[in-house]
Amino acid sequence: MTLKGQAFPDGFLWGGAVAAHQLEGGFDQGGKGLSTADVMTIGGNGIPRKVTDGIDPNEFYPNHNAIDFYHRYPEDIKLFAEMGFKAFRTSIAWTRIFPNGDEDQPNEAGLKFYDDMFDECLKYGIQPVITLSHFEMPYHLVKEYGGWRSRKVIDFFVKFATVVFKRYKNKVKYWMTFNEINNQTDFESSHALFTDSGILPKPEEDNEKLMYQAAHYELVASAEAVKIGHKINPDFQIGCMIAMTPIYPLTSKPEDILFAQRAMQTRFWFADVHANGFYPKWLLNRFDEKNFNLDITDDDLKVLREGTVDYIGFSYYMSFAVKDTGKLEYNESHDRVDNPYVKASEWGWQVDPVGLRYALNWFNDRYHLPLFIVENGLGAVDKKTADNKIHDDYRIKYMTDHIREMKKAVLQDGVDLIGYTPWGCIDLVAASTGQMSKRYGFIYVDGTGSLNRYKKDSFDWFENVIETNGAEIE
Ligand code: P53
What is annotated as the active site (predicted)? Predict the structure, then answer.
């Protein structure tokens, strides 16, 4: 079957994705409280960001002003509309709605901001796709409750979810609960636990145990939100959000294959719980072996069974490889090896378009649920020429290669795919490094002061992809 001339199914949601803290700015405006993203300094390629105890006037916090989408969204959404976006994935900053997280009443100014911004999208027929918690939570919940260490945070999250579900029930259909909930599998890295769960481990604590406990509370909170959301509007589609990085065995040695399988189980059990509504047995055995004695109640297990997700939202940037280490326990911070068959980006991310087709089939076989690619893209340094052009042919190539594999998965393999919203459709602050120079967008943002917007070559290219519904990708 030839791919040329074949379009994606009608209604396919082409668009773009961002997250509140990475583009809005206005970190202290409209009554917004301080979030975990607001206490993270700038880092660099290979240089971790610092998490400070509150705001240190001597540090630079790139998320505070970001690209000022808070004030400029009408201009930006107009550009998205020009590209023909059908969907715009962003998140609601929890701290605009509940500045400290534990208030009784929500902040009306924050609710109004999203009302107005969603209306601006809907005016052009762009539907907002909303993540409830994208790498941020109220900093107050970190200071007072230890972040997701605390069971109490389930109630705060569910309250936040209920307020926004009710408020936007006629404006938003597609929701996701926790962004890349499984990134904290890398629990030894400098801030995976902080960005996912608002946890700064103390030296004497066991990061692995902290991670499993926090993830359990998040999964319960997610399931509770799914149940409530379906009551508020039965048409809601509420998904999870998983960072999909296929983990391949480096060789066909059986021990390598088995180890890679366990690595996949270790990185993706979160999706099992979200989608199946129960824990896989191997993991319960692991908890026992390690004497974790986690706080998991029978009521929790009931909620997990009742609040399974409607679809799997996932990001896809890269794949990993592993080889047997002699013990069947995958440690994400140590056990990854380079894959000689794929090339890495400037930031060391192993670019692998075929892995996207593999990932789509893997999810489809395992969960039999609709899938939604809610992030994909190439972080690169872009150069603006003297006449304000950005020739980002490398980005067009990256995306063409990925859309081609996605097309095979949908048209040939029969995967049920809702849409494709590439990451950072407008340049924004990188999550891992805080840099503005790691760019993903179709729209260039001059981060050095003017914050002016410029269309890159990929802007016109993507406009054509959407207009032809992918028919020209071969
Ligand atoms: P940046 C690690 C691995 C895969 C995806 O990342 C990741 C991360 C954490 O950085 O994050 C997602 O900006 C995330 C976005 C993030 C995007 O990928 O570090 O959902 O918030 O910006 C790209 O290049």
Answer: 375
Q: Which residues pair with 343 in a beta bridge?
A: 351
Euclidean distance between CA atoms 34 and 138, whole angstroms = 6
> Which of 315, 421, 433 for mutating ligand 1's site (highest number of atoms within 8 Å of CB)?
315
Atom of ligand 1 nearest to the CA of 318: 4
Nearest CA to ligand 1 atom 15: 431
**What is the domain-level CATH number for residue 185?**
3.20.20.80
Summarize pLDDT for 80-125 with one digit per residue, the tens.
999 999 999 999 999 999 999 999 999 999 999 999 999 999 999 9
Q: What's the number of domains the chain is made of?
A: 1
What is the span of the domain harbouring residue 275? 13-467
Distance between CA 75 and CA 379 in Å, rounded?
23
CA 119 to chain centre: 23
- State the CB neighbour count (10 A cutoff) for residue 57: 4
| Ligand 1, atom 10: closest residue by C-alpha | 432
- 223 found inside a domain: yes
Nearest CA to ligand 1 atom 21: 431
CA 191 / ligand 1 centre spacing (Å): 12
Give the position, in ligand 1's atom list, of the atom nearest the Cα of 424.
22
The answer to whether residue 473 sits within a structural domain is no
Q: Is residue 410 domain-resident? A: yes
Answer yes or no: pTM beyond 0.85: yes
472 within some domain = no
Burial of 466 by CB count in 10 Å (0-12 exposed, 13-18 middle, 19+ buried)?
middle
CB atoms within 10 A of CB 152: 15
Q: Which residues are catalytic?
A: 375
Q: For residue 449, what pLDDT is reported?
A: 82
Identity of the residue numbered 236: F
Cα 454 to averaged position of ligand 1 atoms, centre (Å): 23
The phi and psi torsions of 221 (rounded to 5 degrees) equal -60, -40
The pLDDT tens digits of the residues spanning 132-184 come to 999 999 999 999 999 999 999 999 999 999 999 999 999 999 999 999 999 99
Tell me, rounded to whole angstroms, the distance of Cα 444 from its chain centroid. Answer: 21
Residue nearest atom 11 in ligand 1 by C-alpha distance: 431
| Banded pLDDT at 410 (limits 50, 70, 90) | very high
Q: Ligand 1: which residues within 6 Å by Cβ?
A: 19, 22, 135, 179-180, 183, 243, 315, 317, 375, 379, 423, 430-432, 438
Predicted pLDDT at 466? 98
